[in-house]
Specification:
Length: 483
């Protein structure tokens, strides 16, 4: 029989459940709230870990209110940066001390996580009404679900997260028109150079979260796809005529953008050591003209830098015009219940309320967040800059094919494939640092090594590499999943 979550579930659990885990040493520094014990003297402890820094303040309030509604449950919440999360979780899982709820680290496929025993299925702890509240395309086989069982939920609806923010005040100081930002690659590089020269060390053309290789790879793939590379979203495998797109002319021209920015001295010199939150904060302090990140920046700046005069634009296109759009896939996997959590009913209750219309409406109204719950966005999205970002994302972004959603058998390939290093993001890091000067050669080597790794994984999984090729993919249009 299915164990459906309801608001009355917690009361029953108060007398029957002990703690799920030990206290988190970092919780107090990341928004841990406290709660009293239940009337019966027993307290369920839910340890939760993710990297959702842009919604952290809302989560603090939500966690406190959740514990007030359910005094028998104590929430210990830890928020880490993406790189910290990957390292911390890997160590915790290896030591048998995983949090009760944690998000899937970037670059890790659900199939791999499940095969290694990270998560337990949560379908039996969720009501059908709750499952049906997700927008179409939010819960997909191979992405959030395996063999019909839901293992993780998406954090939000996925939209393009590599648009370009720019500082309007710096534009005016440098004689650039803030109402006519650069539209082409050459205009963008020139604007970065102008800003750097005018800043004379006070500010630079662009600041990057250079320590986060994943962010750099997302950017590079976006530039390349706009040039026609048919390069899918971060971590998604795709081939053209049986070959990966990483040594294509479009990819090489995209990497040359970073090489030119580096040669011009237009990249903030601290970039190579910055994570995404640090780069975002320094950008708001007026240390760069441009920043390429996602809509999650908007609520953070509204709260921490209310006087910051920023704007947003689409990613520039090649000088001879766009040959593709900024790629994104459907809603991505995020939070799951640990395989070692002793009280999944409590964890599922937390998720049920986290995805409730009340909390979802609040984070959408803050800006920077697009809910995957049906009907919430239409009613709650009110921030004008978020609306601009959303409209630009919808017009310049193009939904790309996701092999996991279209061919679930590819999950086994992802579980078998070995990562090639340096990866694309690390190659960009090398270009920024000046340690990689032969950009074409670096991509040729990476492409060849990746092709060998992909073919070996396909052979091991018994899946033909053609499962990652989509002849009907027009990168200038949203991929039609209904075909």
């Amino acid at each position: 029989m299915k164990k459906f979550v309801s608001l009355g579930l917690a009361a029953a659990m108060a007398f029957s459940l002990a703690a799920c885990g030990t206290a988190s040493s970092s919780a107090s520094g990341s928004g841990q709230a406290s709660t009293g014990e239940s009337a019966g003297g027993e307290t369920i402890t839910l340890r939760i870990m993710d990297s959702s820094d842009s919604t952290q303040e809302r989560r603090k309030v939500f966690n406190q209110e959740f514990m007030e509604r359910h005094p028998e449950i104590k929430v210990e919440y830890t928020m880490l940066s993406g790189d910290q999360l990957t390292q911390t979780l890997t160590t915790a899982i290896k030591n048998g001390d995983a949090p009760d709820l944690f998000c899937l680290p970037g670059g890790v496929k659900l199939s791999t996580a499940v095969s290694e025993g990270w998560y337990q299925p949560m379908t039996d702890y969720l009501s059908q009404e709750f499952i049906d509240s997700f927008s179409p395309g939010s819960l997909n086989e191979g992405v959030t679900t395996l063999d019909g069982e839901i293992y993780v939920l998406p954090e939000a609806a996925n939209i393009v997260n590599s648009l370009v923010f720019y500082n309007r005040d710096i534009f005016e100081e440098c004689g650039l028109d803030p109402d006519a930002p650069p539209e082409t690659w050459s205009e963008f590089v020139a604007a970065c150079k102008t800003i750097t020269e005018h800043g004379n060390g006070k500010y630079y053309g662009i600041i990057e979260s250079g320590s986060a290789a994943q962010r750099l790879e997302i950017e590079l793939r976006s530039f390349a796809n706009i040039a026609g590379a048919k390069c899918n979203y971060y971590g998604v495998m795709s081939v053209v005529d049986g070959q990966n797109p990483f040594a294509s002319d479009a990819m090489k021209s995209a990497l040359d953008i970073y090489a030119q920015l580096a040669a011009d001295g237009s990249i903030h010199p601290d970039s190579i050591n910055l994570d995404a939150p640090s780069a975002r904060a320094m950008f708001a302090q007026g240390q760069a003209g441009f920043l390429i990140q996602g809509s999650w920046c908007i609520p953070t700046w509204r709260a921490e830098n209310p006087d910051f005069n920023f704007d947003v634009m689409a990613l520039p296109v090649p000088d001879d015009g766009a040959k593709g759009g900024n790629p994104y896939t459907g809603a991505q996997p995020w939070m799951g219940i640990s395989a070692t959590c002793e009280h999944p009913e409590a964890a599922a209750l937390y998720l049920t309320e986290l995805y409730g219309a009340d909390y979802q409406s609040k984070v959408v109204s803050d800006g920077g967040f697009v809910s995957c719950i049906e009907g919430v966005n239409e009613e709650a999205m009110s921030d004008p800059m978020m609306l601009k970002y959303y409209n630009l994302a919808m017009s310049s972004g193009k939904l790309s094919p996701d092999p996991l959603a279209l061919n679930p058998e590819t999950a086994e390939v992802y579980s078998q494939v070995k990562e090639v290093t340096p990866n694309l993001g690390q190659i960009v890091q090398g270009v920024m640092a000046g340690s990689i000067t032969d950009t074409a050669g670096a991509l040729d080597t990476f492409s060849a090594d990746t092709q060998a790794a992909w073919q070996a994984a396909c052979d091991a999984a018994g899946v033909d590499i053609s499962a990652f090729e989509f002849d009907d993919w027009d990168p200038m249009a949203d991929y039609d999943y209904s075909k």
